[in-house]
Amino acid sequence: MDQLKKVKVNTLLIFIFSTLIYALCQLLFSIILMKEDLWTNFHIQLSAHYIVILAMCIADYGLLLLLNKYTRNILYRIIAGLTGLTIICLVLLGAFNFMIYNVFNVSSVGMPSFLVKFAFAMTTNIPILLAFELIYYFRSEQKAIADSEKAKREALLFQHETLRAQINPHFLFNSLNVLSSLIYVNPENANKFTKALSKTYRYVLSLNQQPLVLVKDEVEALHFYMFLMKMRFENCFTFLLEKTQLADKHRIIPLTLQLLIENVFKHNIATEDSPLVIKVIIGKDLLVVQNNIQPSNDIDKAGIGLKYLTRQYALYGRDVVVEDNGQLFTVKIPYIEL
Description:
Pfam families: His_kinase (PF06580). By secondary structure, the chain is of the alpha+beta class. It has two domains: 2-147, no CATH class; 167-334, Heat Shock Protein 90, CATH 3.30.565. The chain contains nine helices and seven strands.
């Protein structure tokens, strides 16, 4: 906290010093341009110029916030920036002219025209906005680099945690139980189950140091995982997959689909009388996982679930949307474009 307060104080001091120097430079420039006496009411002139510069800084900062909120296009930013600067200069000039001529009753004789003042104000104001733009650009670059490194670290942690979750005793115990029963009842399905289990683990192990994967790879791995679930739950659920071909080349967090499906089984009851209906939609803009709600009383709170996925996507500036209307539970996953 003390360090943060120190940084804020230093930033404020730098801002005050910078604006004071800039005001002094503008004062000297205006005195040379207007051919006035440098030492006549120097402190009053410097104070007036500093107030103008300070007002411009505040207005330009507000303009920068608006530009950042509504547009990232360079051409639009230039047009909107120049328009904003024009409005700011006109408003400030009008306000200061009113103060000088109407409030303080200073004579306008010998004073420069409004057009000259406006041109001078624009040449003064443009560098201020450019300085703010440069500061914003460099800070954005630094933040992007820091976020990228954080995302890589979090992605590696995610892979380790996911791998540990997939090979936990419960998962192995359930899989081996199903396999042992199939060996005697249906050897052919036992063989298929073994291959699907092997491919599921092989996919998990292949994710080492991969922060993102293609949707088509996730869907392919999901088929093996759903086969395991089908052998385990048999006719207790229905799985539907709708896929847009164009979505195959989009990227998502590894094991997103598997974790969401696992979340469905973990939090719901699946029986032949009340089967779960799980629907996965691989759309053009979003990946959607939806299921009917049949709450389970015995919910395993451990493991990786929706909250962790939400955190992972937030690292890339994407929001995971969760909708629960009491009958359907829907999770909408955004694609991550590099």
